[in-house]
Amino acid sequence: MTLKIIAGEKRGLKLFVPDPTLAKPTSAKVREAIFSILGEKVPSARVLDLYAGSGAMALEAISRGAESATCADENQKVLKTIGQNIALFGKDKDIVALAASFPKDINLLIPRSPYDLIFLDPPYRDIEVPQSFLKLAIKTKLIAPSATLVWEMASSNLARLELISFTPWTVWKSRSWGKKAALFLEL
Q1: CATH number of the structural domain spanning residue 163
Q2: Does 25 sit behind a cis peptide bond, omega within 30 degrees of 0 on the bond before it?
Q3: How high is the pLDDT of residue 128?
Q4: Residue 102 phi, psi (nearest 5)
Q5: Which domain covers residue 91, as residue numbers?
Q6: How far apart are CA 72 and CA 17, in angstroms?
Q7: I need a labelling partner for 65 at 20 to 30 A (CA). Which of 42, 47, 58, 99 fits?
């Protein structure tokens, strides 16, 4: 699989891809759609990419003008790939990779907070972690008061999750692309 930055300052830059058994990078089509929906929420945003995989979501945001990005993943091999991709952006960008899993390592994420834009792409069978993140992120002040969260999931989970109340979060949009879908939530 070839993975490239779609738009912005680093448009066309080829990224390293982790072993497909360790991470499932978001396709260019889906990334483009997500960033089209986010629009003006990206420039100057402080980004958190949980379950970062290749880091492509955070790096796409940086290419499009985000202020900073934190890529968090617990797998050391995946983190090595993220580090290679961060190096492609040069030292003048505020991008870090952290060995962190949620919720266990939430304290590692707090020093770079509050985050304006959060990407969550956990294993599709795990719908509990994002729901606990929504609550804990507010409690720990990990997120900015006007934060936006993009939760990627299997399309089969979308209809059921659209009906759940995530108060004080609201579902802003939802989209589906074949087997992949995303919920866009705002405070």
Answers
A1: 3.40.50.150
A2: no
A3: 62
A4: -105, 140
A5: 3-186
A6: 16
A7: 99
